[in-house]
Amino acid sequence: MDGRGAPLLSLRPQGLLDEQFQNLHIFQAKSAPDFIAKVIAIFGKEGGQIIDELGEMLHKPCVDFNNMSALLYNLMGITASVGALRVKNICIQFLEFCREKSIDG
Length: 105
Prior knowledge:
- The protein is mainly alpha-helical.
- Helix content is 67%, strand content 0%.
- The termini are far apart.
């Protein structure tokens, strides 16, 4: 592993990342030195879009909890690709509020 990922790996003990982020380094080859940066960029773009959609849904007078759950599962899927543990854990909590149909949660 090169030094570029070392600062981010220090986030694992803080609960921000899981072992999947470290596994990304295994897939990064010398022929594709920007692999991790591209994966994180995709995560940021797609995750940001989903978070924006969730925010819009929360501001509607009638919240569609089933659609929110579907978006949360999509977000959990892309967080798994980069090992974003804290985001995954928040999605799990958010899903519980959707099951309860709790706008306050």
